[in-house]
Amino acid sequence: MGKKLVMAQKRGETRALCLGVAMVACAVITYYILGTTVLPLYQKSVWTQESTCHLIETHIRDQEELEGKKVPQYPCLWVNVSAVGRWAVLYHTEDTRDRNQQCSYIPGSLDNYPVARADVEKVRARFHERQVFYCFWTSRENETSVLYQRLYGPQALLFSLFWPTFMLTGGLLIIVMVKINQSLSILAAQK
Q: pTM of the full predicted structure?
């Protein structure tokens, strides 16, 4: 009976050690992936200053107005604000500005025109309800744009690092508990 118990403990300890090492390895791989994808985007983000924006005007640009230009054919919202004592164009996120500089907000579903138009109308109504809101700006000289929401801010970075840190801590705790258990069983066997 004693030999079977020792063998079961060794098998269980081995499995627990493998689980702990696998968790630590997955956490290290995830840290590497995040370090090469999310961290550079966070470091490149220049919109770090928070300010209060005052709504000046909103305008929905339809496909008829954009026919002569090489712009995707969907309704989009154009928002002008006053921020940091100057006029600026508001963009929803960094990606919105990169996708189309003539649109402040691009709807999520571009396939269905009526749904996209309703989405833009809803966002426009929210801006008119809240005339004053927080936005992000850059301290660059000739920059005339501000962001409503940062995709690559400190909260996104911390949220991205939470699960790998949790997995690394859990894996290390499992390894430490198994090693403590092994040393205590050796001490108990010696008595």
A: 0.65
